[in-house]
Predict the structure.
Amino acid sequence: MKMKDMRQRMPGIYEVRLSANQNSIDEINIFLIPGKKGERSLMIDAGFKKRSCLAKMEKVLFTLGITYDKLDIFLTHKHHDHSGLASEYASLGARILMNPEENRHHYDCLYYNHDHGTDEDQYRVLRSVGVTPEGTPEIWEMFMEIRRRVMENRGWEFEVHQFPYMPVMEGQVLNYGNLTFEAVLLKGHTYGQMGLYERKHRILFCADQVIDGIVPIVGTTYPDEHLLEGYFKSLERFKHEFADCTLFPAHREPITDVKKVVNRIIFAYLDKTDIMKHILDRSKRRMTTKEVACLAYGMENIPEDTKEFIKLKMVMSKTFSCLEYLRDMDFAIRTEENGTYYWQSPEL
Ligand SMILES: [Zn+2]
């Protein structure tokens, strides 16, 4: 079987790399495990909501002899690059599998889910991180512009449409081809992210939990989810239970030196939280998440262009998780006023 779009990573495991657009480094790895004759096949993640991505996948599915009525798609988490095409695949007849915890919020700073929930969800989230029409009108307007695009059906690449799915629980066993997978909870990158662990062959499809050369975003804008604490616990599991595995992340190359890659990520997060601790320690007043984010990541107060705006969305989520962690460690105090969270050093 030869095809430039697809490579065989191991016997029975194929990888397809999809791009968000031609001149972007935004890429995702989609994995396919064809089923035995007459049985169901597995696709891990759905990819970007792009015609070009669907067209590429249709070619691959045809080559592997996989039809939609025999296709299961395991969504690792509900981010646009992983779940963008899920609603499309569902309408074509594929069965979607996902941890229901990924549906716990209608909106966060990183993704947009406009088929359920209300406008209020978005207003509440923005206000909680310190983005308000009265305090930060320019940034508020950038968020509202996207909202209008979504509502007018002009679409937005970070938007995820609703889809029917079968809930997957931690520890659930799934068989495809000659492989036996266990669903493992990978709390950190998102609250309910899940991976697939193949115990016998020492393989773990780890989604965005561990990526080589990148510090994955641990992002939430909801209080008391303890995402960074959960992430560190999960990474300890990687260093022990999964240390001898080959990791297949959703981005970049497979990882065999698990401990080294994991240690680099832990160190980067401790470094970032330390910077935020210093910001709070030196501040003479309490600060919003947005304010700490701009200082910690050296960003302008108002994003200059779309690229900077997207970056701000990401770092606000990341900063929120870090500040929650500092609070878990008693290095920060969180107060709430008019729906906005404020952070301060315990010494202030
Ligand atoms: Zn993600």
In short: DSSP finds nine helices and 15 strands in the chain. Residues 187 and 233 are 9 Å apart (CA to CA). The longest strand covers residues 13-19. The two ends are 65 Å apart (CA to CA).
